Amino acid sequence: MTHPFGYAMLAWQAGWVFTLRSAQLWAEPATATAELTRMAAEKQRVFAAGALAAGKAAMVGTRPDLVAAAALAPAQRRVAANLRQLTRAPRR
């Protein structure tokens, strides 16, 4: 993700994921504790993966824009997957 569209798409998708997750928690407060714990752990894993990817890219002398892209790639993949999961039609 080295172009402005990629960053804008990540921001747009993250906003939708936040909105849809908030609506779920509001509609089903009984599941809030477990769901919030799961979401917090997910963010820690993605942050760590991004930090490791950025560190690896920086250590081999990669350009700064590509180091930033490596750092954001795990978050972008997770946010996109969350959005797909949240917008999928429920199974009957």
- Largest β-sheet summary: none
The SSE order reads HHH
Q: Any low-confidence stretches, pLDDT <50, length ≥5?
A: none
Helix content range: over 70%
Q: Any idea what the radius of gyration is? A: 16 Å
What would you call the structural class? mainly alpha
Please work out how many helical segments DSSP would assign.
3
Distance between the termini: 37 Å
Q: What overall form do the CA principal axes indicate? A: elongated
| Average of pLDDT | 92
Strand % is under 5%
Beta strand count: 0
Description:
With 92 residues, the protein is mainly α. Helices cover 83% and strands 0% of the residues. It is built from three helices and no strands. The radius of gyration is 16 Å and the shape is elongated. It starts with a helix and ends in a 5-residue tail after the last helix.
In short:
This protein is mainly alpha-helical and about 90 residues long. It is built from three helices and no strands.
